[in-house]
Structures are given as structure tokens and as C-alpha cells.
Write a structure and sequence with these properties.
5 helices, 0% strand, 127 residues
Length: 127
């Protein structure tokens, strides 16, 4: 399982690069909400490519194993978002929780769903 924990780390850098793309390119061209939504889509695509590659190299042993990988990545992603977002980036708790408000058009939760289910989906496709 260690290799999958280590494989999660580059996802942080992929997410940061995606955030920089949003701030330096999309934010100047779109309203904030649309930039958030567009960057969510690009991050889903980038994570999908990365996860597909990782799971081609290190195939999960079973469907159950793939589900566990997804759940571990989910916990790491949420923990990182809140710890980094609050302690390093200095965002307020209300701002961080606002990204989970789907009724306000915030679609960050789609990233979490994707990170959770992608290992299982790719496991099934690679069988």
C-alpha cells in the first residue's frame, strides 16, 4: 500500500499546477465561479490521466484493493486541502467549506468523488 500513498504525492503538485493555471489564466478571462468550474474539469482530466498511468504501472490486487486506494486518496486529499488551505494559504474555514456548496455552483466535491472512484473504475477497465 505504500506505493499508492507515495503515488498520491504527485497529485498535490498536479493540483497546485492546475490552481496556478486557474489563477494566472482562467481568472483573468472568466468570472470566479466559472474559473472554479473550469479548473475543476481540468483537474478531473489531469487526475484521470495520472491515475490511469499509476494503475497501469501498479495494478491493484482486487476491486476491494482499488476501493481502498480511492478511499485513502480521498482522506489524504481532504486533509491536505484543509491543512494546506488554512495553515499555509491562509484561507478562512468558511472559504474552504464554501467550495463544497454545490447549490452555489461550487463543484469541488466532484474532484473528491473522482479521486475516490477512479482507482476502481480504472481497475475494472484494466482487468
Amino acid at each position: 500500500m505504500w506505493k499508492y500513498l507515495i503515488a498520491w504525492v504527485p497529485m498535490v503538485f498536479i493540483a497546485i499546477a492546475n490552481g496556478l493555471l486557474r489563477e494566472n489564466f482562467l481568472a483573468n478571462r472568466l468570472k470566479e465561479l466559472r474559473a472554479h468550474q473550469a479548473s475543476t474539469i481540468t483537474l478531473i482530466i489531469l487526475f484521470g490521466i495520472y491515475i490511469w498511468i499509476v494503475l497501469r504501472i501498479w495494478k491493484p490486487q482486487s476491486a476491494r484493493h482499488a476501493i481502498i486506494i480511492g478511499l485513502i486518496w480521498l482522506v489524504l486529499t481532504v486533509a491536505f486541502e484543509f491543512i494546506f488551505g488554512h495553515c499555509v494559504a491562509g484561507h478562512s474555514w468558511s472559504r474552504l467549506f464554501n467550495d463544497y456548496n454545490i447549490f452555489a455552483g461550487r463543484v469541488w466535491i466532484l474532484i473528491l468523488i473522482w479521486v475516490s472512484i477512479a482507482p476502481y473504475i480504472f481497475y475494472q477497465l484494466h482487468k
